Amino acid sequence: MTQSAVSKQVSQLEEMINTPLFYRAAQRIFLTPAGKRYYLEILDVLKHIEAATISLMSTADNVETLKLTSHPTFCARWLVPAMLGFNQAYPLISVEIKEQVGPFFSEKHDVDIAFLYGSGVWAGMHSIKLFDEHCVAVCSPAYLEKISSAGLGVNDVTLLHLISRPSAWHDYFKQQSISIENNFNGPRFDTFYAIISAALMGYGVALVPQRLVEPEMLSGQLVKVWDYIAKGNGSYYMSYPLSLDNSYRVKAMLNWITKYLEQHAEMDRP
């Protein structure tokens, strides 16, 4: 589409809504306040149209698209490694992964499989349990050396918190019958990914699912501060709509993940 054609369509839109969307001056254009508001309101729709168009252009007629969703940290640290080799094993399945932030509602999300944390019950979904959550208290070797050499006790360390789990540290110490004064104090982060990054940089002690920091613990980048391992209140699940019970693409992913879990069964042990 030519620049003049785009300009004409914009002018027609402004005429239709009876509202200017751009300031035009010296061969330059700027969004008006109404234009900015309109842009922000339709941005998600435009992105969806773009993604659907690219998907259609890149997918052959005989290729199925498998839509997955997962929490960002779980996606980067577990799901992506678990899927290594899937494309080669199933060349007729094209995978799309969207990050899931906030509560999951099946009726609002256009997905084939959702990797979720919780009780395993989501309306209209069949859930398969992947594994329980076991959380460990970890920090960088430098931070551990700092608190050890200074003789700092449990009340003196900086605890890193996940905003969505405000009582995690309180529960961790309560399970051990340990009384601590400042278990609600300390920096708060929106994701486990941010907490892990902060721990790696020496900000303090992170309470995180062991599976999500397995590489850093094996390499020595993160070390346990205390030996106790806390069982989370929920578990991780692979959930899909009941309507896709016989879907080839869904069955393929279920089989792949099941085999991956069997091959890495030792990771289930806390």
From TrEMBL:
<keyword id="KW-0238">DNA-binding</keyword>
<keyword id="KW-0805">Transcription regulation</keyword>
<dbReference type="InterPro" id="IPR036390">
    <property type="entry name" value="WH_DNA-bd_sf"/>
</dbReference>
<dbReference type="Pfam" id="PF03466">
    <property type="entry name" value="LysR_substrate"/>
</dbReference>
<feature type="domain" description="HTH lysR-type">
    <location>
        <begin position="1"/>
        <end position="32"/>
    </location>
</feature>
<dbReference type="GO" id="GO:0006351">
    <property type="term" value="P:DNA-templated transcription"/>
</dbReference>
<dbReference type="InterPro" id="IPR036388">
    <property type="entry name" value="WH-like_DNA-bd_sf"/>
</dbReference>
<dbReference type="InterPro" id="IPR000847">
    <property type="entry name" value="LysR_HTH_N"/>
</dbReference>
<keyword id="KW-0804">Transcription</keyword>
<protein>
    <submittedName>
        <fullName>Gcv operon activator</fullName>
    </submittedName>
</protein>
<comment type="similarity">
    <text>Belongs to the LysR transcriptional regulatory family.</text>
</comment>
<dbReference type="Pfam" id="PF00126">
    <property type="entry name" value="HTH_1"/>
</dbReference>
<dbReference type="InterPro" id="IPR058163">
    <property type="entry name" value="LysR-type_TF_proteobact-type"/>
</dbReference>
<dbReference type="InterPro" id="IPR005119">
    <property type="entry name" value="LysR_subst-bd"/>
</dbReference>
<dbReference type="GO" id="GO:0043565">
    <property type="term" value="F:sequence-specific DNA binding"/>
</dbReference>
<dbReference type="GO" id="GO:0003700">
    <property type="term" value="F:DNA-binding transcription factor activity"/>
</dbReference>
